[in-house]
């Protein structure tokens, strides 16, 4: 059966070894720096493009909607592989689990096919705009271009599902060394110890549909576009008409030129062979995987007047904001000097406990080899996150207690909001990842080493940080675009986003809707995921016949469950229902809201290491070993 074939696959080959780009350490270090730099440019460039197409109403057109999809797609594609590639440069043995390899192949294949179709849709948009300008608003209405974009994603995903399903059904019982830096499907197929003719035929058909048809469609569209442009009498008119599609044409040439060279002719060589892949193929794959997504926003920014104008408008809005409100005044926790001194001592002590407790947890998870497991890797990330979150606000709060006038600059306030929002969203996702880890460990212990391999849990953690950062970037970008021309007194002890939004002298309904959507994604979905995971966990634990067995099984997840209840109980109360009150009002915020915010911002990060230390035998043993080692060293 299909299930037995998959089990056989996993029993014979549980992981693949990636040869990478080069076996020379010096070259690998160079590639690490180069790829990391390019990846950061991709995130920044495409992130800015998405932001300006969302925030600027002048760009709410079909072309820029497709462009936003293209930028989001490029971020998804690179994030599915680049973090793993970078991690491979830091480890001597570059491995990836069978399931992790399948997921990576699916994502990269899906994104590639989707981009092919999307570029075809964009060509059609340019054809209608230039050849039939009077009918453009009707043909390319929102009811048309939104389903067109959705169909691109669906078609790409469906094609990838077919190709990867066929690939994972193959038996991999021989060599498990992939001569590539990622799980590239052609390199993986060479390792199968069975006939791959069906895979080759299937990929050939897919190439015709997702490469040939869009290329032909784009070619025909541009023939009509060029004919129409050449009929325009004035040279200035021709130049303006061509400028509206030159960026798209440049991207098409780079993208299809590379991908056609890579996948145009899938080879059906002996899969049992271990032929070395030419370095040129790897460099071409790198060019397609990194340079193309990096160049897309640069091309559209340099060759597109609307995008440059939108970016300038965003900058002018920010400058205008800073000219109207240069700084905010924080009311703090209390106006009574005696209480403020008490709060100063209390918060300082709690902050020191946070640094000490989470610092020790990070140290033991790094230094103790017994804790080099997915659960403790996530725990180390959680501790580092808690340190970052508190350090982004606590020093400013403490300084506020020592100065009579508690002020913060506009840009400083924006940075603080970004960091706190990013850390909060990241922690939500991270706790969901930790719940999945506990689910696999308890409900599927035999498959745990395969499912939760290093090649799986490292990208999971990275994706938590990326998702949290991306969400925060959207929310804070929307907030700083608002005009703050009236009251500048924030009734809080930090730049809390809801308290800041109340000061805006404009409608904040878009911000409220955006935060509502973010709450569903980063609060609702993880909570639901954790709830379902623990239903399965509890069901499995209750089936264990001995009381001692049930106790041991529950003890492995009791600390995580306690942290989840404390964290989500507080944050859901704080942000579950963002209120859209009159932003011009200066209504006093109830003291209980500040104390709840303090509880979430300080007590939760302080309690996390305490909970994990008291309720986890492994951590306690590791701490004692670390203390004992230091004592012996000093002795």
Could you explain the architecture of this structure?
It is a single chain. With 635 residues, the protein is mainly alpha-helical. It contains 23 helices and 6 strands. The protein has helices at 2-12, 25-55, 62-79, 82-90, 98-131, 136-139, 142-168, 185-189, 197-230, 235-263, 279-302, 305-324, 337-367, 374-391, 394-402, 410-443, 448-451, 454-480, 497-501, 509-542, 547-575, 591-614, 617-634; strands at residues 15-18, 95-97, 177-178, 327-330, 407-409, 489-490. It has a 3-stranded mixed sheet. Strands 5-4-6 form a 3-stranded mixed sheet. Helix 3 (62-79) packs antiparallel against helix 5, helix 5 packs antiparallel against helix 10 (235-263) and helix 9 (197-230) packs antiparallel against helix 10. The chain is globular, with a radius of gyration of 27 Å. The model is unreliable at 1-11, 270-277, 314-323 and 582-589 (pLDDT under 50).
Quick overview of this protein structure:
Its main location: membrane. With 635 residues, the chain is an all-alpha fold.
